[in-house]
């Protein structure tokens, strides 16, 4: 039996072993410069190389067109919940917030501090399963400055795979647990952002990919650190960035590229998630209540029909080397976060554990 320990944490989450080994090996004396990467200036030639590479890899991997710029921001995705309305509210002083779950609703709550956003609830039930209504049916407002939504609700494990096609609307996406997991068409968006600690690297940095034209928006009275234009002009170094996280992100991006890019990960992510959902659907012992068209490939949530077994399931899973499967407290149950760094063997081991546990306790 596979003795390896697998970490299903939702974020910060597991990173590729290859990357961590490289970090370890180079930690005391990075590239033979006689210092650690965390001991040198963010403005040094050496660090500039890391910045250049991370932008280059992101552009290649995501096919980012020329009219976009990449910013590396601080304050997490939550910082963006504030930065977005502060920078992008315009003539209507109003925005559409699509509510598909916890994180998209948090973004709405933050926006309420700056305007009267529209809370647009898009969940519906099909055959008793949670699903997201088609974008055509979303009740958008004519007089709103932008629309904000979240294509992967990390806590509930709900994804929206449909691509946005809203005429004359600025479209913003919270891609925190989605970026690099599958192909996306950047052109469909005006701004996307992702905090790093799900699928990109350690916590500390948030990647913002924004259309250059949006940098010209007014709003000069907002805090400089949240100001997109300023961040662009200062090359994301208005203050001292989290150099260690940035460095690790550049290594993760290189690893993604080496493995075969997003095409490769999309295929394997479909395979991994299908394997787990198949196991859940094949039994009367485990339940997932998300409709197949909106099931996340990154965060797979499930419940035990017999909730009395919850603690035992976690305990046994732990013993078996399957860690951090506990679901978020707002929905309970279990969650297996299987980002790019999780190998197929981790999911296979989880599935074989679930089969054994079911046989023992059903
Ligand atoms: C984790 C997460 C956030 C919050 O990220 P922080 O970096 O902690 O602010 C926001 N949105 C989504 C979709 C997330 O998964």
From TrEMBL:
**Superkingdom per UniProt:** Bacteria
Q: How does it assemble?
A: Homodimer.
Protein keywords: Amino-acid biosynthesis, Aminotransferase, Cytoplasm, Pyridoxal phosphate, Pyridoxine biosynthesis, Serine biosynthesis, Transferase
Task: Write down what this protein is called.
Answer: Phosphoserine aminotransferase
**Which source organism?**
Buchnera aphidicola (Therioaphis trifolii)
* MF (Gene Ontology): O-phospho-L-serine:2-oxoglutarate aminotransferase activity; pyridoxal phosphate binding
| Any one Gene Ontology cellular component term annotated for this protein | cytoplasm
The UniProt family comment states: Belongs to the class-V pyridoxal-phosphate-dependent aminotransferase family. SerC subfamily.
Q: What are the subcellular locations of this protein? A: Cytoplasm
